[in-house]
Structure formats: C-alpha cells, structure tokens
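[step 3/7] fold_predict: job queued, chain A
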Amino acid sequence: MWSKPHYRKLVRISGYYDLLMTIGFATPWTFVWLHGWLGDMHASLGLYGDLPVFEPMHMLMANLMGSIVCVWAWLRIRHPHVRFGRYDAAGRVLFSSWQLYALMHGGSALIWGILVMEVVWAILQLMPVTGRRQRLCRTPAAA
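[step 4/7] structure written:
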C-alpha cells in the first residue's frame, strides 16, 4: 500500500524510466543508432527470435511510439498525479500484452527484459493508495 506522497514519487520515477527507455525511439536518427545497438546486443547474446530490418513504415511506427511515450513520461514527471499513475498502469498492461504477443510470434528475446519491467511497474502502480481525497472547496462551518 502506498501513501499519496510515495505514490506520486513512484509515478514521477516511472516517468523518468520511460523517458530514458524510449527517447531513442523518438527520432529516425536516434532510432537508427538504437536499432544497431540492440542488434549488436541480440547477436552477442546469441538470442533466439528476430530483430528485423526496419523499413520506413516500421521507423514511422517506432518514432510515433517513442514520441508519444516521451510526452506521456514528461507529463508524469511534471504532474505525478495518482490518476496518471493508474492510466500508466493500464498502458503497461496493454504494452505487456503486445510484448507477449511478439514473443509468442518469434520476437527477439530482448523483449523479456522490457516485459519484466513493464509488469513490475504495472503492479506497483496498481497497488492501493492511502489517504483521503482533498475537497476542492470547503463548506463553511455550521454555526
């Protein structure tokens, strides 16, 4: 169980994690470098599955994902509200589903590392938060 201040800190840290993990996907130039690095890691570890060559449409999808995740991460860093943590957890459940799908269809075993982290973040952000909601306006005290 999280207190509100601790949960907000968790949301902010998850934003920094996402920014760090996805900034390389955000532009064609950074993704070319990242893809090469991931391909080298994949080969050096002798992993099963394919790391495909990216055509322009693949690049577009990677860049769109990277761009929107970076914006979403920055929002959570700047405004780490509980509701954003809950939405982020839902997104992580979806991302985890698609990562499992990719693994089941021959995707690179590098995905396992990312999948584990997505599940961990989702579990942490789905945990209960203690503390009452603060009311936006107070009613005057009865005389």
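[step 5/7] annotate
Residues 56-78 form the longest helix (23 residues).
The radius of gyration is 19 Å.
exit 0
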